[in-house]
Amino acid sequence: MRLPIEELESLLIEWESGTMTTDQTERLREILRDDAEAQKYFVRSQMLTAALASENETGLSPSLSHDEDVDLDPTKSVRSKNAQPAKTSPRRTRTSSRLFVWFAAAAAVVICVQAARLLYLENQLEGRGASRIATVIPPSERDGAGEATSSGIAIIKSLVDVTWESDQEPIDVGDALSPGRFSIASGLAQIEFFCGATVIVEGPAEIDLETPMLARVHQGRLRAQVPTAARGFSIDVADLKVVDLGTEFGISVSPEGTDVQVFDGEVELHQPTHEKRTLTTGQAIVRREQGEMQDAQVSPERFVDIVALESKQREQEVTRFRRWQSYSEKLRRDERLIAYYAFDQQEPWQRQLQSSADPYDEELDGAIVGANQVPGRWNQKGALEFKKPGDRVRVQIPGQFESLTLAAWVKIDSLDRWYNSLFLTDHYNQGEPHWQILDTGQLFFSVRHKADDARGPQARKQTHQPVLSPPFWNPSLSGRWIHLATTYNAQNGQTIHYFNGKPIHRESIAEDLVVKRTKIGAASIGNWSIPTRKDAEFAIRNLNGSLDEFAVFADALSAQEIQEMYLHGKP
C-alpha cells in the first residue's frame, strides 16, 4: 500500500488544532491500523516533534497566546516513562482521547525503529574507527534497557606535555582505558589502575595494558605507587615479571636492558629459568639484553614521582591559561562578535555577567538568576553552575543579523531533562535561534521560519527545520569541560555542529525554510524564558552543569576558526 503521507499530515494537523470531524477520525484510525509504514512515519514524525520546543506546552510564548488552550504536542504517548503527565486541553474531545490510545499503540509497534535510528546516529560520528578509549553504553529510557555499562581497566588521571605516537589515538584526562596498547612519544602520563595502583609513564614509552592488575612494558620509564589494597600488581618485561608486595618502585626499559629499582617496600622478581628473587627498599638490579642480572645503585631522581608530576601539571595549567588569555583578548575585538562572555571578571557577590566584548557595552551585561559562581577551566577564572530549575542568565541582545555561530565551554553533570538549554530565545519568534542538548546526547539547533502572526494549518507546518547532531555525550564525559559550537549559514542554510573543535554533523536546511534574517532579543543562557502562566508553571530545561565561556558571532565561522577556539581554550 502506498503511504498516504500528505493525507496523514493533513489529518494530524486537524487533530492538533482540535477541528477533526468524525469521518476524519475514522480515516486516521484506518490508516494507523492497516498501514505499518504509516505507523512508522507517524512515530518518527512525532518523536521529532518531541525534540522541538512546543511553546504552548510550556506556556512560555505570548506570541501564540491565541492557541494557548490547545495541546499542540501529541507526542506524549511515546515520551519517557518518567515524563510528567500532560495537561489535557478543555477543548479536547472524547474522540481525541480515544485517538490517544491508537497513537500509543502505533508507538509501541515501532519503538524498535527509534532504537535502530539512535544506533545509526551513534555510528556516524566523524573519525570514529577503532578506539583505545573505553566505550560507555547508556541504557535507553525509551526501550527499557537495563543499567548503564562501561568498560576499562584504568583511567587517565593527568597528562603533561604529552605528544602521541602516530598510531595512538589521542586520549584525554578522565578517559577510561580498555586493554590494549598505550604509547606516547614524549611527556608524562599518570594512569590509575582500577586495582588502586598508580603508574607515572614517561615518554617515549610503549605499554600494553592487560588487566587491572597487570601491564607489560616494551619501552619507556615508569614509576609505580602500589598501596596495600593493590598488592600483587605486576609489571611484565619480556619474560621478567615484577610483582609488587605493597611498595613504590621504578622500571626503565630500553634496548640495552631493564632497570628495576625499589624506593619503598618490596617486590618479587620472577623468571622462568631462575629462582624467585626479592628486592627491598634501596635495592636495584639491571637485567641485560642477554638475560643476566646484576646489582645496581638506586637513583630515584631519574623517575618522576607524583609530587614532581603535580608541580609540572600546575606549570602546564598556568601556561595554558595565559595562552587562552591572549587568545581571548584578540577574540574580544572581533568585529563579528554579537555577544561574548568570558566569565573572567566576576566577584562572588556580583550578580551580573559582564559583557567581555571590546568595546564594552553595558547593555549586553547579563543578569545572573540563581546560578552559583564556581571555578572554571582553570582556578584563575570562574564559571557559572546551573543546578536548580530556575537557574539562568538573562540577556537582552538587540539587532538583526544573518549567519550565526554559537560557541561555549560546557561541563555537563548529567542530561536528566528532555531538553538541556545552552541558549534559548524567550518566544522563539521568526528569525530567533534555539540551541540546546537533548537527553539523547544530541546537539540541537534551529531558527524559527514561521512568521509570528502565522495562522492556519499550512502556515503552522512551516515552522523550522531542526538540525540534530549524532549523540556526542555519554556518562564518561560527566564533569569534564567540553567545547560545543554550531554554525548557521544564512545564505545556503548549511548548519554544522562541532564537538571539541571537530565537526560531527553537517546538514543543509530546506530552501523554503532557510531564514535570511536572524535576531535574538530577550534570551536565557542555560535555561529557557520566564514564566508567563498565571500559576507561574514552567518547563524544566535548565542545564545541569556549568558554563565557562559563551560567544555569539554574526557569521558562520570556518572549521579552522572553531578548531583554534578549542585548542586555545583547552584546559
How is the topology of this model organized?
Layout (H helix, E strand, L loop, with lengths): L4 H12 L5 H13 L1 H15 L4 H4 L35 H16 L1 H12 L13 E2 L11 E2 L3 E11 L11 E2 L2 E14 L4 E14 L2 E13 L7 E4 L2 E5 L2 E8 L2 E8 L1 E6 L2 E7 L3 E5 L4 E4 L9 H27 L4 E5 L10 E2 L12 E4 L2 E4 L6 E5 L5 E10 L2 E9 L6 E7 L7 E6 L4 E5 L9 H5 L5 E2 L12 E8 L5 E6 L2 E7 L9 E8 L19 E9 L5 H11 L2
Parallel strand pairs: 7-8
Antiparallel strand pairs: 1-2, 3-4, 3-5, 5-6, 6-7, 7-10, 8-9, 9-12, 10-11, 11-14, 12-13, 14-15, 16-31, 17-18, 18-21, 19-20, 20-31, 21-30, 22-27, 22-31, 23-24, 23-30, 24-25, 25-26, 27-28, 28-29
Describe this structure in words.
This protein has 571 residues and is an alpha+beta fold. 20% of the residues lie in helices and 35% in strands. It has helices at 5-16, 22-34, 36-50, 55-58, 94-109, 111-122, 306-332, 457-461, 559-569, and strands spanning 136-137, 149-150, 154-164, 176-177, 180-193, 198-211, 214-226, 234-237, 240-244, 247-254, 257-264, 266-271, 274-280, 284-288, 293-296, 337-341, 352-353, 366-369, 372-375, 382-386, 392-401, 404-412, 419-425, 433-438, 443-447, 467-468, 481-488, 494-499, 502-508, 518-525, 545-553. The strands form 4 sheets. Strands 3, 4, 5, 6, 7, 8, 9, 10, 11, 12, 13, 14 and 15 form a 13-stranded mixed β-sheet that branches. Strands 16, 19, 20, 22, 27, 28, 29 and 31 form an 8-stranded antiparallel β-sheet that branches. The chain has an 8-stranded antiparallel β-sheet with strand order 17-18-21-30-23-24-25-26, with no helix packed on it. Strand 5 (180-193) and strand 6 form a beta hairpin. The longest helix has 27 residues, at 306-332. Residues 51-132 and 140-144 have low confidence and may be disordered.
